[in-house]
Amino acid sequence: MMKKVLLFKIALFCLCFFCITSPSTAQNSEQFQIDSLQKQNRIESDQEQLVDNYNQIAYLFGGISIDSSLHYSQKGMLLAQEINYDHGLAVSHLYTARALIQDGKLKPAMENFNKALSQFIQERDSVNLLDCYSGMSYLASYESNQLKSLDYNLKALEIAEKLRDTTSLSIRCNNIGAIYKRLNNYELALNYFQKSIALEQYSSNIGDLAISYSNVGVLKVEHHKFSEAKSDYQKIMSLLPAIDSHYVQAYLYLSLSGYYNGINNFDSTKYYIDKASEICIKNNYQHILARAYRKQGEMLFKQKKYSESIHVLDKCLKLSDSIGVQEEYPEIYKMSAKAYSQIGNHKQAYKSLQKANNAIDSLKSEKVAEYLVEFEEQKAKNEIEKQQLELALKNQQAKNAAIIMKNKYTLALLAIVLLILSISIVAFYFLRSKKNNIILKSQHKLINEQKLLLEDNIKKLEVSEENLQKLNATKDKFFSIIAHDLKSPFTAILGFNNELTNHYSEYSDDERLEMINHVGDASKSTYSLLENLLTWSRSQSGFIQLNKEVHLIKNLAEEGILPNMAAAEIKKINVLNNIDDAQIVWADKETIKIVVSNLFNNAIKFCNAGGVIKLTGKLNHDVFEICVRDTGIGMSEQIMNNLFMIEKNAQRVGTNEEKGTGLGLILCQEFVHKNGGQIWAKSKVGVGSEMYFSLPVDKNK
């Protein structure tokens, strides 16, 4: 009985997690089931069954009365603890968490989910695990760490695919789309939202379908595609009358208010905000009420009522902070900064702009982006491997069929020969038998040749796949740098430049100097990155030609470190070039200068203020080994293993929060190899690092 209820429960679980979408007739049916269970409980002697009954009543009350749902899940929890019934206890925690979400108590809801999760993992209970991960992904989406929400979503997606649960698959597509929206990836967000709509088209759950249309509409409105969003909101308006859930109604009213605010229809905007707020206050939907305040603040800003807008946005921030909801912070602070700027309070605008940038960095975590890239790559890789396996299987089947036909033909011929030999003389039989032996040997030889050919093809496929992975890693690294590392500094540059241009006289000298320093730091970082990126791009395209000659390696090293000496002086680092004055190497001058410059720059970045960087070298047979040694923070073994792998992320911030991409070391490796040398690292955490590379001393080597 409980399994059927749990399966039915998953079908009702939607993006808003605990939506009540059943009509009044369904509520009557639930009340009938509740009454039946309560009568059964009066005579039930099996304590575990009694716990299961309490949990089922808690589940059924979820669509009628949250207080009653919590009451029965708590009764089930207490009895399960008393009789040591672990599964029943886990289900009680699960239903308690569901009710707490609708009651607006997000933190205790997450605590109950975690208590249920470990038991379901131990039992390998896929249905309840899917329910847990779904709820946890929803709760985590309100926090600053979006990586947790993504992780829970992907785990739920894997289980839903195994169960072939289209409703849960639709929810997962919605949630992954929402994460892509937060990362400002319009195309992938729209793709996942539309997948969700396709899965919901034939579902009886009108609320889920309306929410999917709302997600698409909100995405288009945020990108000012109002004419395209119009049809989505028309669909929502047509579905609203059939939705009984107050939770979903409030969610959709806020979505409609955003659309009408976008097209400057403020009467409709206010109408839908008021309707949503009334529902939230009546039902204590605190996290939805916080969104209503934000929508109201946006409307007041567009109406140029800037002081009122600031007041409402502050209410939104206070409420969000009190219930632990952080997903709205970046946009709220941006809007506040604009409003403060309009009323002439530029210092407060500057503070709000800084808070917005910090919130954006927190929510748009690079780990989340990398996690999603790995998820999409794995999907594509699995599809390619599946196609390759199917193709290889078909080819092998065709070859096997050909061999079988050939063997049949040979056996038929052999039968005829044996028939003739049976009526022939012994000598003729002997000669013909010998001939048959020769034929069999040739067949074995043919089969062996085909086997070798197949093995060769498999090796070629493996090499091709490895090359493809490297190309994909190179491409992804390139676009990751452009999308994040090259783009991010411009947020600070443009933001602070705009403040200085428009409100220069409003700031003190110290504040202006701080802004200029921010712009300078971002510009230097961007220029250094762009220089490495262009050099790397030229190298990948084959445009860099090496001109190897005899050089004094100490002079090359001096030229390589010279551009970065100012940075070393700022950190008061003592630089020593102890390479032998007379030592020569056979190498290309320009590429080796880039290698030394990058290694020296890294040493500065990770060296503590007042530290030492020393360049040394020694002759090892027919190569000369150069070492750039620093007294910095050092590296762990894991970081060292990933240093020269483009598909891995080994970047870290320096001792003064200097940022990097890891591209410089990839460039060093490539140039050292082109010059006939090797590159490697030694390090110890807290002591420092030693970066080595070798170069030939003889042009014949």
Can you walk through the features of this model?
The structure is a single chain. The protein has 701 residues and is of the alpha+beta class. Helices cover 73% and strands 7% of the residues. The chain has helices spanning 2-12, 24-43, 47-61, 66-83, 86-102, 106-123, 126-140, 146-163, 166-182, 186-200, 206-222, 226-239, 246-262, 266-283, 286-302, 306-323, 329-342, 346-363, 366-422, 426-485, 488-503, 509-541, 553-561, 565-570, 589-606, 637-642, 663-674; strands at 548-552, 574-577, 584-588, 612-620, 623-630, 679-684, 688-696. A hairpin with a 3-residue loop joins strand 6 (679-684) and strand 7 (688-696). The longest helix has 60 residues, at 426-485.
Task: Give a concise summary.
This protein is of the alpha+beta class and 701 residues long.
Sketch the major β-sheet: 5 strands, mixed
| Strand-residue proportion | 5-15%
Q: Segments where pLDDT lies below 50 for 5+ residues?
A: 1-25
Secondary-structure content class: alpha+beta
Tell the overall outline: flat
Distance between the termini: 78 Å
What's the helix and strand layout?
Blueprint: H1 2-12, H2 24-43, H3 47-61, H4 66-83, H5 86-102, H6 106-123, H7 126-140, H8 146-163, H9 166-182, H10 186-200, H11 206-222, H12 226-239, H13 246-262, H14 266-283, H15 286-302, H16 306-323, H17 329-342, H18 346-363, H19 366-422, H20 426-485, H21 488-503, H22 509-541, E1 548-552, H23 553-561, H24 565-570, E2 574-577, E3 584-588, H25 589-606, E4 612-620, E5 623-630, H26 637-642, H27 663-674, E6 679-684, E7 688-696
Helix pairs in contact: 1-7, 2-3, 3-4, 3-5, 4-5, 5-6, 5-7, 6-7, 7-8, 7-9, 8-9, 9-10, 9-11, 10-11, 11-12, 11-13, 12-13, 13-14, 13-15, 14-15, 15-16, 16-17, 17-18, 18-21, 19-20, 21-22, 22-27, 23-25, 25-27
